[in-house]
């Protein structure tokens, strides 16, 4: 039996037997190092020709994107970055300036989020391989997992979807840029080349959850918008916070919702008209194409969060810039894409459309 | 300018500009996460055909060796392992059982040291690439750095050197096994295939250093072997421990001593007759060949530690099994290999003989 016969998911399922079961299944692993402190660790391997290409990605952009993807995994877990390590495999024929530009891109991204490269390894390899491990710190009661979504939760996206996929299309087919208004094309390309991990969401989220929890459980100040209906989320023991589920949309919005639902044993309805799109999609793409980019495109690196509707509403209001409630957690296991204008029939979304390594 | 023009050291020097200066230069990076606690992180990339090969290394052994090398880096820093992440690049044509055996070898090694795989990534790549990041925990005053060696320190090795290199030779040239007594060949091959990271040394080392410090500075019980001469090592502020320098001998004993001396701004004399060798070397190899394997061979994964002579002597006595004082830290910057029987002239060791990626 070869790796390609069982594909990425099949291989991962077999390899997870070698890991402690309690740490598998999220964007990153969580290790409790001391009471009151958790270490969050995530790792990504990027291979030249598979994950980046000189056609669409300069060395600097490849570096930024790799760093951003790992910081996004930390954000998706609720963790603040402590640092990253960079393992690099290279041929001797690569130019030194290419390597320096790669590191330049990595550190530019890290500096924006007040963190840095803290170690690494450089080795000879016939194919350029970039392996990044990021680690962060989180309060054990503020870790965001995939398996905590509950019936009735609102599904929040922290920004627009589809921009990165559209930017990639413009890089692959530069002639398409003539259909776009000035500035719109560069904004979409920038969304692809310089994605922003949403670490900025975390302090806002904690503040909102804390104020709602305080109101519900009588600790501290009342919540800003009483009266609050009974929550379906009993607090964890020792936890002053409402529970929350989430991950990032690096593999697409559809994938994120499907993964959360599978891990939580629930279903969802997504309202296609509520998904925030880049402005340019209005005049540039058909509704169908726009939705395709938004839900399957991937690499927007927004957070997809499931939480009770009142704090969800508060979060969307505070974040602005495309943050929206895009659906609801339901019973069952199906994830349904619904069009409130009823132009299109309901679609049942499946994991199969996501990017899978090894399968052709 | 190409990577091969400047070699591994040249590239690393350029890339270190992208890292905070205080964390570069040891086997692993140290991050202070809280007062009283440090996170130690190290990363290694292994490439098929460069770092392992099917001729000498089964998948299981490749996994064990990769895990052992990373745990050894933690041991060299004085840290206890918390876990590792595994990033794997693979062709679809690799057999699933090969991958499972690789993970089997990794987890066998980790289990022996009470730790585990806590995360990873599996991606498609034209060449098999294994990227491991290990992280551990250390008390900030018990971190072993390269730059703390001081004049008069004894240089301790925690075991024999040369066995791994000899084992590799036997794997590459099986006909050589006929020159060895039964059992000696398999022991050397095992030293190459299943190296043991010396995490077991740490609790013994801390106990000895603590008892000597207590005696010197009047805290707690007297040391076991009074009277103690004045130490050249004033304690670090807040530290109840004598200072110590060290690293592992993964790139060879000569390399370890040279790296420590360079980082500490000191020299050293190594006494060739004091370097512990596998018993089989006595009848199998010339003195010259044996010494060559021992100081340049690499991958023995012992610790090379520099500390005052009395605790050094105590440590060697407690460890046994080839642990020895093999030299002394001197002023200047030269590392001299001396033969006390004066058969051979003194040699000045240089870094040039170590394994360098990119250079041919």
Characterise the protein shown here.
The structure is a homodimer of 360-residue chains. Chain A is an alpha+beta fold. The first copy, chain A, folds into two domains: 3-142, 60s Ribosomal Protein L30, Chain: A (2-Layer Sandwich); 146-353, Phosphoribosyl-aminoimidazole Synthetase, Chain A, domain 2 (Alpha-Beta Complex). Chain A has helices at 3-15, 59-77, 96-112, 163-172, 184-193, 201-217, 253-264, 281-284, 287-296, 309-319; strands at 29-34, 37-47, 80-90, 117-124, 129-138, 154-157, 245-248, 267-271, 303-307, 324-330, 335-338, 347-349. In chain A, the strands form two sheets. A seven-stranded mixed sheet of chain A has the order 7-9-6-10-8-11-12, with helices on both faces. A five-stranded mixed sheet of chain A has the order 1-2-5-3-4, covered by helices on one side. In chain A, helix 2 (59-77) packs parallel to helix 3. The two termini of chain A are 16 Å apart. The interface between A and B is large, with 72 and 72 residues.
